[in-house]
Specification:
Length: 385
């Protein structure tokens, strides 16, 4: 009998033990793969949203924290305290373009949606939007709505239809081409209309600023702070701040998954130690037939590695499916809605790494049992009943 056949025979000898040990590895690795996949997708989408914002600087309400910066990228409702006078003072600074936005929330068919009031003429070139159906706003205060592609699809809305925002019916003017970001999930109104509907006359949530000279971003930030008492953050600072929050959450989730992997590793140790005691006579026979301690050590280590390999493959597949199923659910939460645009971001290297990691963990877990098995003396092993 070849070593491979012997290892396979020993693995399936106790089918119940084999299945439950394997399930422990599969579940542990599936948890790990799920959290790593979601974390990677989340990070990629945050960077995409930051780039799509189109701003080098963002002016936020005074005293705003990292949560407001996250909300800007996710399209969540924000405090509306920046006045028209402050916006005018910012726009008066030469060498930059400043676009004010009003970020609010509403509901369509009892499902929450983001609403963004925009200065219509300036936002189109600033954001680089394209209209796939219908038309864009024809005047700065036109009474109507422009829909993101996902919102239009979810609620079966097309140009010529109507959408109700804050109890007011608005005609659907057009639908934007898919951007792959939060704009797909947003209802856009002209800024004056949004301010009237939400009773925020002459106030906005934040101001996106694009500077002419990227080398002078910090200087422009100081100029803005000189004319208004508001928060100013660069796109790089905002990205770093949001990524630090997401990174902390991702590490926490991965540590939780690591506990499951560790529990599975101890399951392998227990299984292999039990196998060592149960197969003492078999080990003695192998030694009597000329098997060296190194051969026995390798047989037991190979058996552990197969547990890890099979568990890693199963865990990677299950984790991949779990991350795809979890994405639409967690994207309903404002803090994690970035994931929506990164559902297809599966890294094959990450999956291969998970299988390799599982195999290595299993082999490390099998080192001590394999060593114990190889140290048995032929007389002790053969005489075992």
């Amino acid at each position: 009998m070849t070593p491979a056949k012997l290892v396979f025979k020993n693995i399936v000898r106790r089918r119940g033990r084999f299945v439950f040990t394997l399930l422990g590895i599969v579940i542990g690795m599936a948890s790990f793969v799920t959290f790593v996949a979601l974390g990677g997708s989340l990070t990629a989408q945050i960077k995409k949203e930051s780039a799509a914002l189109g701003a080098n600087l963002v002016v936020t309400p005074k005293g705003s924290c990292a949560f407001e910066q996250v909300s800007i990228l996710t399209g969540e409702q924000l405090p509306t305290t920046i006045t028209a006078e402050e916006v005018a003072a910012i726009r008066a600074i030469p060498g930059m373009t400043a676009i004010p936005f009003l970020a609010e929330r509403s509901a369509i068919q009892n499902r929450p949606v983001s609403v963004l009031g925009v200065p219509t003429e300036e936002s189109l070139p600033f954001k680089g939007w394209r209209v796939s159906a219908g038309r864009y706003f024809s005047s700065p205060d036109e009474h109507g709505a422009l829909l993101g592609s996902v919102v239009a699809g979810q609620f079966a809305l097309q140009p010529g239809g109507e959408v109700t925002i804050r109890g007011t019916r608005l005609p659907v003017l057009g639908v934007l081409e898919e951007t792959g970001g939060k704009d797909d999930l947003t209802v856009f109104l002209s800024l004056p209309v949004a301010q009237r509907l939400y009773d925020q006359q002459d106030r906005v949530s934040y101001v996106a600023v694009r500077v002419d000279d990227l080398e002078e971003v910090d200087a422009y930030a100081l100029k803005i702070k000189d004319v208004v008492s508001l928060g100013v953050v660069s796109d790089k600072q905002m990205l770093a701040s949001v990524l630090s929050i997401v990174g902390t959450v991702s590490v926490t989730l991965q540590l939780i998954a690591a506990v499951a992997v560790l529990a599975a590793a101890f399951g392998i140790v227990n299984t292999m130690m039990t196998a060592t005691y149960e197969r003492k006579r078999e080990i003695g026979i192998l030694q009597a037939m000329g098997a060296t301690r190194g051969t026995i050590f390798r047989l037991f280590l190979l058996e552990s590695g197969i547990y890890g390999l099979l568990g890693g493959i199963g865990g990677a597949a299950l984790g991949l499916v779990a991350s795809m199923l979890a994405t639409p659910l967690i994207s309903q939460n404002g803090a994690s809605s970035f994931v929506k645009g990164a559902q297809g971001g599966i890294d094959p290297l990450m999956l291969a790494g998970a299988v390799l990691f599982s195999t290595l963990i299993a082999m490390l877990s099998g080192l001590y049992p394999a060593w114990r098995a190889s140290r048995l003396s032929p007389v002790e092993a053969i005489s075992y009943e």
